[in-house]
């Protein structure tokens, strides 16, 4: 049996002793009893409100390393060919606080016939598939984005929010090209 109180992130060089395969709802819980892939009991006693990440490592009180993997589950796959329709779908799902996985002009949501009908009416193609569901964590979740919240001038104006450049990245992707 492994009792887990510690999350150690998504990088670990120690040997993995056990693996747990969890669906999204399980990864969203901080406290639960489950079984590893080899049948060992694993009890989680983690801080609530911070979902486990697929690929994350945990340390049991005995020092054993446990890896979290995502379970394949039923999802609705929503796609379209144009960005305006895609943006409308994102808006309407976000307005309803739906857990959404965002890809390159595709979305994944948990199957819901009402939402699927709405998305179809907006002009999107809705199909069903089995996949690991990894929805966005939300704009206010710890670790969202990459420490980038804008405090720089663009063409003689400033929008005065803090800005962290701890991660190397270019700003041309979001249309805010500038020097530092």
What topology emerges from the helices and strands here?
Blueprint: E1 2-9, E2 16-22, H1 24-27, E3 31-35, E4 41-45, E5 57-60, E6 65-70, E7 72-79, H2 83-95, E8 101-103, E9 106-109, H3 113-121, E10 125-132, E11 153-154, E12 157-158
Parallel strand pairs: 1-4, 2-6
Antiparallel strand pairs: 1-5, 3-4, 5-6, 7-9, 7-10, 8-9, 11-12
The chain-level mean pLDDT equals 84
CATH level 1 name of the largest domain = Mainly Beta
Q: What is the strand tally?
A: 12
Alpha plus pi helix count: 3
Query: What's the arrangement of strands in the largest beta sheet?
Result: 2-6-5-1-4-3
Descriptive report:
- With 180 residues, the protein is α+β, with helices and mostly antiparallel strands.
- The protein has 2 domains: 2-70, HSP40/DNAj peptide-binding domain (Sandwich), CATH 2.60.260; 73-132, 2-Layer Sandwich (Alpha-Beta Plaits), CATH 3.30.70.790.
- Helix content is 14%, strand content 34%.
- It contains 3 helices and 12 strands; from the N terminus they run E-E-H-E-E-E-E-E-H-E-E-H-E-E-E.
- It has helices at residues 24-27, 83-95, 113-121, and strands at 2-9, 16-22, 31-35, 41-45, 57-60, 65-70, 72-79, 101-103, 106-109, 125-132, 153-154, 157-158.
- The strands form 3 sheets. It has a 6-stranded mixed sheet with strand order 2-6-5-1-4-3. It has a 4-stranded antiparallel sheet with strand order 8-9-7-10.
- Strand 3 (31-35) and strand 4 form a beta hairpin.
- The N and C termini lie far apart (51 Å).
